[in-house]
Write a structure and sequence with these properties.
Helix content is 5%, strand content 37%. The chain is mainly β.
């Protein structure tokens, strides 16, 4: 795991964050949100809303979602119960990694979080039954700016660990457009997508 906080961290790309756990015979304690420590990683947005979702069955997929400007959202995703495959897709216009993705397995057991900045689509697939997910967002839900990309877009080619025919998705998500049909309003900031590396927080 990377322990140094070098210049790559300040690019605000998707980051895999592992808050420290203090373990004893009773269980453990963890500060899952610490504004100053996140700021030290380059995460300077203000989170204004917490969302919680329960998915009853393994194989449930939500995504690939984002909000358009001026209501674009950065997200900080945590799992409170169960396990998910969490995915972020680069949708920044002009990015050399446009359409590429990174993914991480997040679970209540591993305590890993995924920070997803503005300019990335987000989706997740539950790997167990009765998953409880919580995520912070940097702007309020705005239905007029709600948008997304199709989760099984062949140009993105996410290797979901379930057969597509076994995946449980909403009708809305199944009707989302392909990436090639999307005119992205998100600008490339000069930093291409890089592989995820766990960063210890605290």
């Amino acid at each position: 795991m990377r322990k140094e906080r070098d210049s790559t961290i300040l690019m605000k790309l998707p980051l895999s964050i592992v808050p420290k756990r203090h373990v004893d015979g009773r269980g453990w304690f963890s500060e899952i949100f610490h504004e100053k420590r996140l700021r030290d990683l380059g995460i300077t947005c203000r989170f204004v809303q917490d969302n919680q979702a329960i998915s009853r069955r393994a194989g449930t997929l939500r995504g690939l979602h984002f909000q358009l400007p001026p209501a674009a959202q950065a997200k900080l995703v945590s799992v409170l119960h169960g396990t998910i495959l969490d995915v972020a897709v680069d949708i920044r216009s002009g990015s050399p990694t446009f359409g590429k993705h990174v993914s991480a397995e997040l679970s209540a057991e591993n305590g890993r979080q995924l920070y997803i900045p503005v300019g990335f689509a987000h989706g997740y697939l539950t790997l167990q039954d009765d998953v409880v997910l919580m995520y912070k967002v940097s702007d309020y839900y705005a239905p007029a700016y709600d948008s997304g990309i199709c989760w099984n877009d062949p140009d993105i080619a996410i290797p979901w660990p379930f057969k597509h025919t076994d995946i449980i998705a909403s009708d809305k998500d199944r009707r989302l457009p392909l990436l090639k049909e999307f005119a992205s309003p998100f600008a490339y900031d000069g930093h291409p997508l890089v592989p995820l590396t766990d960063l210890n927080l605290g």
